[in-house]
Amino acid sequence: MHSIRTKITLMTLTAIVVSVLAVGGIGIYSIKSEGDRNAAREMRLVCDSQRKSLNEYLYSIEQSVNMVSRYVTQDLNVVNLVSGGAAGALEDEPSDRTSSQTMPLNMAGSTRQRRMDIYLDAHSRRAQTVFASIANHTNGVVSYYYRFNPALSSTELGFWYTSKGSSSFIEAESVDISAYDASDMGHVGWYTLAQQRGRPSWLEPYRNETLGLDIVSYVTPIYKAGTFIGVVGMDILWETLVDQIRDIRVYDTGYACLIDQEGLMLYHPTLPAGTSFMDMDIQLLSDVNSSKDTDDISLFAFSADGTAKRAASTRLDNDLSLLIIAPEREISAGWRKAVNGIIVAAAAILGIFAIVATAVMKHITDPLRNLAAASTRLAEGEYDMKLEYAGDDEVGVLTQSFNRMADHLNTYIRDLNSKAYKDPLTGIRNKQAFNIFADKLNEQIQAGTPDDPPQFGIVMLDCNELKEINDAFGHDKGDIYLQTSSRIICGVFTHSPVFRIGGDEFVAVLQNGDFENRENLMQTFNNRAAEINTFARNPWDRISLAKGLAIYDPERDADVDSVLHRADELMYVDKKRMKQHRGYSA
Q: Would the pTM count as exceeding 0.85?
């Protein structure tokens, strides 16, 4: 039969072990879950940020080509209306595009042909002037061209300018389309594909044999009265796109790569171009393609060379797919380290209490009962309790140790919660904290009445020119810009919670006094920014934020998301206004 000391020791150790394991298990599960969510958010954020950056560049090329396309189409119309007979041949042709692309125009003798040649020559010279101006203001262009349909004229071919080997564009000899097979992508693919597709489109990266360069082309076919006139296009170096993702780093060794619609790698930091992702994991290609018809970001896991990895995939505007890839061990390193700390701390606490429990003597029944009850509360998540015991015997030591354990766990859990809901760069609350705050506001909205709805407004703020600062001066200066912006926002909306919900986006929720004084606060913000900008010496010391303020309206807003959406729209209106007046890139 065991002694009372043994029984009390066993009982005490059992209660402590159960409590510590329960608390540790809950803590480990919570940390792992939050770590996985943070990893997914970070992967999505990096992927979305790079997608926007690449698409913005691709869109600038599209805009330039489309501007030229609109001009030449309008110029064809204007000349036709003014000169009549000079372009009359175009109006006499069939409207069917297929036949006009393959059959020579039915010219009525050499006089009509000469008129067509003169017409195309004048049209080409005007187009050259416009195209040169647009190309010189478009970043990364290596060549631009306007090639006429050979069926229209054997003498007027159009023009082709390239900056290869030169600091400016130099006119080069236009390619003789008839000298190559239509399937010869390296020489005439830009022309034949544009003609076949009949619409503006991006071509996949290819080797331009005439330039001797790997390029990406955006081409637009030009039609007049149903007749195929020619092709307008711009070429950019493939390396220009690669340079934008080559230095992307996710965690320690994560990277970015580009693949085509067939799942072949076009760029990978270590693997050769043309490697199929299906060789790495048969499920991977279907996961990548699942995001190609939407603007969504697809998250998935795969294995390569025996290493578990995670990836985020999204489609670019030129139908290539951007993948952000990082090893699983790096993604989970943060929460694993925290879990190891909990295990070590739990083991240390168990050791301490085991020593204390072996020294438990008589007169401890009541204190031990209190300790067991406290352990149960601790297992249920009540970390801020204190046990009171005036004795200095073994029970007192055990009580003090238990209190220290509860304090450590309470501090540790609070620290974890603080990190989970705080933006590490600016120190303000993050997107997850905003979601929790929004849920509470939604509860108030549901509980409110038509006569007494909750009153609040949402200010959406977006940092202008962050990408330019990052690109020109480095991300450390971009961080200074974000931190300065955060301080100004918090300094103006002093009585309102402020959140950083994206890379360059902040939200302030106005209530009570700030809500009543919202218009003055918005003006104060503008004044404060103007004061700072007056004395700012560096671009990253300036303050330039687009703002949108939306007020909750119970007749049109069902929840916080509706108010946030309206504030976001107003912010973009303000961003557009600032862009027009100041000329920055949004």
A: no
